[in-house]
From TrEMBL:
Entry note: cofactor: Binds 2 zinc ions per subunit.
Documented EC number(s): 5.6.2.4
Name by which UniProt lists this protein: Replication restart protein PriA
Lineage top rank: taxon: Bacteria
GO molecular function, one term: hydrolase activity
Cofactor: Zn(2+)
Family: Belongs to the helicase family. PriA subfamily.
Gene: priA
Organism of this sequence: Paenisporosarcina macmurdoensis
Length: 803
């Protein structure tokens, strides 16, 4: 018997399964989808069994056996194995990357470096002897002293020691000690009788056990509750009154939280219509995709909840994806409140062990709903009835590392496998999705009103150029300052939002609002700090940083990027009485801090919540009546064709935080470009007009959804090598693709060096290019067999979220 195994070796020229023979003892239990430990070269690596067969082309003297079978129950289902094949084709990744992305990190291999003595007769220096302490192998830690490491290096050279890699296997399952009390009361009484009166403590414990015959209790609880000791209990166990057993338990991150039960709302007409279309398709076992376009607070979540309720009736499962940043307790609680312990939650705030436990509950069918971030789309359910992507436009659904998949595509693939509907929900759908809905590829469902008819907040757009002319150089316009003061007087709460995203800075004139743009493209130039130059990432145009505005000659040139800390200082200066909570990457590093800040704000411990895009979503506090956007321009001038779309989405999302309940909300947006259509349409909450305008622009400049773009990135430690191979790639594409495909670049990437590697990129823009998959496969083959050896790394992204 032979197994085809995909091995865990990164950046290897050959991406195909290797055959291993299956030792006798594994033959009856091994299955496809199990993990194994196999020899590869001169080390042991993790592998996944993808097929079993009775023959192999590998000659007898080259055949190697599987070393260890790590799972009796396969960790990957047949569906997942099929999905990896598709992911590999669809994203051009290594198969091992596709396999690993489906599993919680607890099940991915971790390796350790093992140092072993091979020449046992050799004299070892003292320091090395101390390391081994009489054993003949030890784990080598990276933090050993430099001297010791160089001694070791020499011994390896002299073939006295060898260094090996081994799979670190630590069981991630948590077990606790349980006391299983004898079930037979008479037997317990008998034991009680026989214990001498001197052992009073033991007698007391056994007496208590008589009242708890047959029960199973955590050992630690027994000791605590009876105020007894381990030694006493040990004596009781020896007498046969109880046995000690290890039991697997789940680590539950939500254990200490009380969750209320929520009742379902009776739906509005629009909600009802949307739900019945979804349920109709569900009943037909169709793989249909719905785009649920509903304004903020229109009750999309209630539609999700009731659709899930329908699928639960049939014992089917549901996957709900939400962007990582909106995985606030508020959002997850809404699902827990409705479906209780049937809900598992998966996000980056959980520990490895907690994630593994949630994953096992899903795999074992002990939960029926998972609410999670991007990778939860791979939840190992086997009978899915519904898949939901909330805020479907969010960039976080696209993974930027291999495998470079979009959760939306995986959702649709799985819906076809399970014959179930997908719901894509958003107040501001992505242009791609809305265009597909208009074409009829997705079914469009609309929620145009809020259930209790609350009006959307009034948005005022403040021209910061005017403020400057009137001598106000602070970051608060007079209007925003007044609005803040009013809230402080009335004791209402507010959110101040600093729209800061990405790394790119742009160059802006403080006097006339001009942003330096590329002469050839409708895109702003990016400021490159290393070289003190500005560049266009689309056509490669570049020039020196201007010292004065090209439009009005003013010398008030500014490179944008204001931090939240600076804003916090300014608030303290202008509004000394205001109590501020700041929420950004710096204040939310610790586990649970995110939740803690929101709880404080919810409890009224602060007047102002100040933050980055982290606070744009999911917040639902009744007392927020003001949202202030300090600078709407930051996303607008990113060198990205999606800049206007992202700005519109963010402004709409933050506006949605104000006045969600009885009190009316107000939004103040500060900007240097008040007339920009993204800002104007956001002011009027007008998605459709924004969509139409943006589609015209995309058409004119041939950007998605009118074309497709592919981003190819080349990196190397040497800048000349990087440039050389980037040109090689671009030239090769120019020679092999038809001339309807436009190849842009290569140019240096906007962050031109990361971790000491230089980065170049080129773009392919195309409408129809049947040759593309083949051509890219060939390029990958050249790369893996030749360039890889020279230290070049190449990545191909068929659907980059930004460029
Ligand atoms: P969205 O997800 O579209 O932003 P939510 O689902 O958060 O909107 O709904 C906004 C608010 O309206 C929530 O407090 C929710 O409980 C409430 N709600 C939803 N549907 C109804 C309904 N049919 N009747 C009354 N209230 C509703
Ligand atoms: Zn100017
Ligand atoms: Zn350009």
């Amino acid at each position: 018997m032979f197994a085809e195994v995909i091995v865990d070796v990164a950046a290897y020229p050959i991406d195909r399964p290797f055959d291993y023979s299956v030792p006798e003892m594994f033959q009856t239990i091994i299955e496809s989808g199990s993990r194994v430990k196999v020899p590869f070269g001169n080390r042991q690596v993790l592998g996944f069994v993808t097929a079993l067969k009775s023959d192999t082309d590998v000659p007898l003297d080259k055949q190697k056996p599987i070393g260890e079978l790590l799972d009796i129950e396969p960790v990957l289902t047949e569906e997942m194995l099929a999905m990896t094949k598709w992911l590999k084709r669809h994203t051009l990744c290594y198969e091992i990357d596709a396999l690993q992305v489906m599993l919680p990190s607890a099940l991915r291999a971790k390796y350790e470096k093992i140092l072993r003595i091979v020449d046992s007769n050799a004299e070892l220096p003292q320091s090395v002897q101390a390391l081994f302490q009489g054993k003949d192998s030890v784990e080598l830690k990276a933090d050993e002293s430099k001297e010791l490491l160089s001694t070791i290096k020499k011994l390896i050279k002299d073939q006295i020691l060898v260094l090996e890699t081994a799979i670190k296997q630590k069981t991630a399952v948590k077990k606790v000690r349980m006391v299983q009390i004898e079930a037979d009361v008479n037997r317990l009484k008998e034991i009680h009788e026989n214990v001498s009166n001197q052992a009073k403590k033991q007698k007391d414990v056994i007496k208590w056990m008589i009242d708890h015959a047959g029960e199973r209790i955590i050992l630690a609880d027994v000791i605590k509750n009876l105020q007894t000791s381990n030694a006493v209990l040990q004596g009781v166990l020896e007498k046969g009154a109880a046995t000690l057993e290890l039991e697997e338990v789940y680590r539950d991150p939500y254990a200490d939280r009380t969750i209320d039960v929520s009742k379902k709302h009776s739906l509005t007409d629009e909600q009802h219509l949307a739900l019945s279309e979804i349920i109709h398709s569900y009943d037909q076992h169709e793989a249909a995709t719905f785009l649920l376009h509903g304004i903020t607070g229109s009750g999309k979540t209630e539609v999700y909840l009731q659709a899930i309720e329908r699928s639960l009736k049939d014992q089917k499962e549901a996957i709900v994806l939400v962007p990582e940043i909106s995985l606030t307790p508020q959002m997850t609680n809404r699902f827990k409140e409705r479906f209780g312990s049937l809900v598992a939650v998966l996000h980056s705030g959980l520990s490895t062990g907690e994630k593994y436990d949630e994953w096992r509950k899903i795999k074992r069918g002990e939960v029926k709903v998972v609410v999670g971030a991007r990778s939860a789309i791979f939840a190992p359910f086997q009978n899915i009835g519904l898949i939901i992507l909330d805020e479907e436009h969010e960039g976080t659904y696209k993974q930027d590392d291999s495998p470079r998949y979009h959760a939306r595509d995986v959702a649709i693939w799985r819906s076809e496998y399970h014959h179930c509907p997908v719901i894509l929900g958003s107040a501001t759908p992505s242009l791609e999705s809305y265009a597909r809905a208009k074409k009829g590829n997705y079914s469009l469902l609309t929620l145009s009103k809020r259930p209790r008819e609350q009006a959307l907040p009034e948005v005022s757009v403040i021209d910061m150029r005017e403020q400057l002319k009137n001598g106000n150089r602070s970051m608060f316009s007079l209007e925003l300052a007044d609005a803040i003061r009013l809230r402080l007087e009335k004791g209402e709460q507010m959110v101040l939002f600093l729209n800061r995203r990405g790394h790119s800075s742009f160059v802006l004139c403080r006097d006339c609002g001009t942003v330096v743009e590329c002469p050839n493209c409708d895109i702003s130039m990016t400021y490159h700090r290393h070289q003190e130059r500005i560049k266009c990432h689309y056509c490669g145009e570049e020039s020196q940083v201007p010292n004065s505005c090209p439009q009005c000659s003013s010398e008030h040139i500014r490179f944008f990027g204001t931090g939240t800390q600076k804003v916090e200082e300014e608030i303290a200066r202008f509004f000394p009485t205001a109590r501020v909570l700041r929420m950004d990457v710096d204040t939310t590093r610790k586990k649970g801090s995110h939740e803690h800040i929101l709880k404080q704000f919810g409890d009224g411990k602060a007047d102002i919540l100040l933050g980055t895009q982290m606070i744009a979503k999911g917040l639902d506090f009744p007392n927020i009546t003001l949202v202030g956007v300090l600078s709407a321009d930051t996303t607008l001038h990113l060198a990205d064709f999606r800049a206007a779309e992202k700005t519109f989405q963010l402004l709409t999302q933050v506006s949605g935080r104000a006045g969600r309940h009885d009190k009316k909300g107000e939004v103040v947006v500060q900007t240097y470009t008040p007339d920009h259509y993204a800002i104007q349409f956001a002011k009027y909450h007008d998605f459709i007009s924004f969509y139409n305008q943006e589609m015209m622009n995309r058409k004119q400049f041939a950007y998605p959804p009118f074309t497709f773009v592919v981003l190819i990135q080349i990196t190397h430690e040497d800048v000349l090598m990087t440039a050389e191979y980037a040109h090689k790639a671009a030239n090769w594409l120019r020679e092999n693709l038809s001339n309807t495909a436009e190849i842009i670049g290569p140019t240096a990437s906007s962050i031109s060096r990361v971790q000491n590697r230089y980065r170049y990129q080129c773009l392919i823009k195309y409408k129809k290019e049947p040759m593309l998959p083949d051509v890219l496969q060939q390029l990958i083959r050249i790369y893996r067999t030749d360039w890889l050896k020279k230290g070049i790394l190449m990545s191909i992204d068929l659907n980059p979220s930004s460029i």
